[in-house]
Every structure is written in structure tokens, then in C-alpha cells.
Amino acid sequence: MDTPIEPPKSLPKQVAPAAQEDKVGPKSQRRVWILGSALAAGCVVVAVVVWLLFFNRPNTASLVSATVAFADVEETVLSTGVLVPFVEINVGSRASGLVTSLTVDVGDTVKKGDIIAQIDAANQTNGLTTAQAALLDIQAQKIADQASLDQAQTAYDREARLYAADAGAKADLDLATKAVKSARALLTSVNAQIRQAEVSVRTAQVNLAYTHILAPIDGTVLAVVTKQGQTVNAAQSAPTIVTLGQLDKMTVEAEIAEADVINVTPGMVAYFTILGAPDHRYYGHIRRIQPAPTTFASDVAATTTTSTAVYYYGLFDVDNPDGRLKTTMTANVSIVLAQARHVLTIPSTALGEQAKDGTYAVTVVLKDHKTTLRQVVMGINDGAKAQVISGLAEGETVVIGDGSVLPAASSSASSSATGAPGTDRGDGL
User: What are the boundaries of each domain within the chain?
Assistant: First the structure.
């Protein structure tokens, strides 16, 4: 027989979902929000750490660098100059007339006293002949006047003896005395005329010598201004026949800008190159700085002034034993203001801003390829490389540019400078 099933005394109550949600309070929500925020912050921290460790290394491949190395450095003033002979003379004529003979040509070498040209000497020869004739005439007059004086002296002596013996009159003695004085005066005048005539003869001889144009110095004929057969007139100024120059020593006339001339003083080392031999340096020392600008003479003569650049001549001399240097050659001049030999240097492009204490900011590449900014004491800077006084050591690497922003040619050239910079090329002092 089946046993009857008794109904349960009580059933559990069904809780509605809405009622369960009502039991989650504000504290639970805050815990969930704090947990989410902490998780997000942790993710950010982890990401930053990963980026700093693996992705924040400097891209040294894009940096153009150079090595600190020993080299020579000098600070110079650049200018353009002209070569001229150390001694240059315009040989002129003080005689007027026709050039009957010209014995030299351009490039000829002459010695002092050599005949260069001959001027027609007919007028000068006639002048000398006339002066010599006048001298002879005065000399003959002197002989006559001397005879008159001797005669007057004899008459005076006779009258003096008669007067002393009371045999002559006082009036006759007085007349004889006056005759002697007059004869002596005439003889004195003739002697003066003779000296004057002798001067005229010497002047005529000099004028005749002027027709022979002689070389005043040893040198080379640089220019022939007057041709044979040409007539010259020396009445107002001496016409130039030829120009002579001594080419064994040359002078460089360097045009120094007014902004640089205040830094240049006599005695400074200067050197130049010529267009035909740009690799060879000729050295000298500044001899003089001209006190007036190169255009001073023309500006004084001009009635109006123009606004142009102002230059001053700096002169220095160089030997030219082989005659390689020619007159009016262009010289590319460098005047050394300061120089240092075998010192630590870096490219000038590596220098950053200058601090108040005079140091420069330089970016240095470390061994781990990271970069650091360092203050460095610098010395001479020639615009291409600069002397390092302190703050860097030989072999260290400095940044001179960013290859990613440099043009291809510039980047390639700068990258090649990573090794030790080369020294200046040229002759030693």
C-alpha cells in the first residue's frame, strides 16, 4: 500500500533578480572602480618602462659625429691683394725732342747706367757750344782787363815815386790811384762773369746729358711707354720712357676691410697663394698698414663721393729669386691673428650656444650610444675647427649635426669627418 507523501511544511521564498541587485551597495561599486583604475595605471607604468628600456635609445645612426683629435688651428683675416715689385721706377726724360734710339724692350734686364734711349741732341749741343763760346769771350776780356790793371798799377807806382821826391803833383797821384781802383773793379766783374759763364757751360752739359736716358737701377723692363720716333715734351712734366722694376723681391698690397683692419698690426704673419699654384704658400710679415683708404687719392680729387666698401692696404714682402711671381698677379692673402699647433680640436659646427661664463654647449656621444650635453672651454676658432681648452678628451665623439635633416652631400661630407680632422696644408714658417 502506498504511503502518502506529506507536503513540506514550508518552501523557500524565490528572490527576484531586482531584489538581488538592490543588495549590491555603494562600497562594492567603489571597490570595483578602484581595482579597475589600479589595473589601468599598472598597464600604463609597464608600457612606459618598456618604452624607456627598449624604444627610447637615441638614434645615433641619424647623428653626424666627429672625433676629438689633435690638429693645427689658426684664426685669419682673409683678403685679396696684388703683387708689385719691391722697387718700381718710371724712367722719364727731362729733355724735349725726338726719340732717335730705343735700345730696350719689355722683359729685358738692364744694369744701372745702361743706355735705354737717345733723344735728338741738336738743340742741347748748340746750347753747349754757345755757352762755351761765351766763356771764352769772358776769359779773353779778363786778359785785357788784367793788362789794364797792370798798366794802371805801373802808372800809379811812377806817380807815387815822383810825389815822394817832390817832383810830381798831388793831382797826378790821385788820378793814378783812381785808375788802379777802376781796373781792379773791372777785373773783379770779369771774374764774376767767368764764373757765371762756367755755370752756363755746366748747365748746357747737363742738358746734353739728359738726351741720354740711362737706367737708374738694376732691374727688368716692365713697360715701354714711349716708342722710337716719338717726340717727347718735357716743358711741363717729365714724360715716361720705360718702367723698370726689381723683381727679385715682391710686395703684396693686400686690401683689408675696415672691419678687420683694426685687428691687424705690423709684424703679424701673413701668407698668400696664387691662382696658378693654390697649394703653395708664400710667407711674410706685415710691414705696414697704410693710414688712408685705397681710394683716398681719387676721393680727394673727386668732387662727389660714393658709398662703397672701404679697404686699407696692408703691405708685406716676399723673396722671388726664381722670378715665379709676376707683377700684378692676384694674391689670396691670409693674415694670421692667432694660431695653435697640435692641439685638441673639434669641428666648429659642434659648438652650441655660448654660456655667460664663456663656455660652449657640446653634445657628446657616450659609449652606450646615449648623448649628453657638456660645457666645454674653447680657444681659437677658424670657422672650420675650434681648439678645445678643456672639457673634452682625445678620441671622444661629438655630434656635429643630424643626418636626417642634412642634405645628402652635406651629410656625406660631415660623416667623413668622424675621423681625426686633417691639418692645414702649406709651407711652414
Answer: 62-78+337-418, 122-210
